[in-house]
Design brief:
The chain has 291 residues and is mainly alpha-helical. The protein has one domain: MetI-like fold (Orthogonal Bundle). It contains 12 helices and 2 strands. The chain crosses the membrane at residues 12-38, 74-95, 107-127, 155-180, 209-229, 266-286.
Length: 291
């Protein structure tokens, strides 16, 4: 065996564990879910398993609970993505302007993102607790009425978004900060010599050069937003009155609480289609704006 072939074989051997894991834990479940989407598969009545074609998709289309969950998911995405983008960009601009302590602040910002969503959820349950929570304690300290953070429909979704914002802000800010630091300083110096102010610097230099990274942030966080599960599940269990039950939680409850695996798989593929459509629209829009 030649040296080149030995090198190639060694590379394949190193790649094999990952390829095997990817096939078993990613590709195989996707294929199984695709098959189940066209089946009636109820774990409580296994003898009734049969092929039903597109019936599961039609049932989901007519399911009021499916659309209620879709609306809750869309509300989360619409609130979360712009809030994260604006806040993270502002934080990155502030960090980029700092001359001392930047690394310390960046590390502190990044710390919440290192926590597991379960730990974050437990922490914010305490923050939002109506009797002894931190936020209501602060409101009472200023002689203000306590707020029903998780028990009122008007507060519940914004409260979940606030938790998600705190959890993800650091990582997104660091990504944008890294992109800002790649902009040549000569561009800023030349613009300042030409009499450009902060608004012109942001609109004509920073924003155009950051658009590819902003595209990445918007698309990835939109995809993550449609897949949100841990935050509403831990804080509100989908309440009050199902106002925060997202589509992933409804799929989870349908498949694993009600044992309707076929119906849950069909809704999963419908969610995939929605996410793909939104991601492609955003990508096309931002791609044209950067051309």
């Amino acid at each position: 065996m030649t040296y080149t072939r030995r090198r190639g074989l060694a590379g394949l051997l190193f790649l094999a564990p990952y390829a095997l894991s990817f096939g078993v834990f990613i590709v195989l479940p996707i294929l199984v879910a695709l098959v189940l989407a066209f089946m009636q598969f109820d774990l409580t009545a296994r003898d009734s398993i049969k092929f039903v074609g597109t019936k599961n998709f039609v049932d989901a289309w007519k399911d009021d609970y499916f659309w209620q969950a879709m609306r809750a998911t869309l509300a989360y995405v619409v609130l979360m993505v712009p809030s994260l983008l604006v806040t993270a960009l502002g934080m990155a601009l502030g960090l980029n302007a700092m001359t001392r302590g930047r690394n310390t602040v960046r590390a502190l910002l990044f710390l919440p993102g290192m926590l597991n969503v379960a730990v974050t959820g437990i922490l914010w349950q305490w923050f939002y607790n109506g009797e002894f929570g931190l936020f209501n304690f602060l409101l009472k300290s200023f002689h203000l009425n306590p707020a029903p953070w998780l028990s009122d429909k008007a507060y519940a979704m914004p409260s979940i978004v606030l938790m998600s914002l705190w959890w993800t802000l650091g990582g997104t800010s660091v990504v944008l900060l890294a992109a800002l630091q790649q902009i040549p300083r000569q561009l800023f110096e030349a613009a300042v010599l030409d009499g450009s102010g902060p608004r012109a610097l942001f609109g004509k230099i920073i924003l155009p050069l950051l658009k590819p990274v902003l595209l990445f942030v918007v698309v990835t966080n939109t995809i993550a937003g449609f897949q949100v599960f841990g935050q509403p599940f831990l804080l509100t269990r989908g309440g009050p009155e199902l106002s925060t039950r997202g589509l992933v939680q409804y799929i989870y409850e349908t498949a694993f609480n009600n044992y309707r695996l076929g119906y849950g798989a069909a809704m999963s593929w419908m969610l995939f289609a929605v996410v793909a459509i939104f991601a492609l629209i955003q990508y096309g829009f931002l791609r044209r704006s950067t051309a």
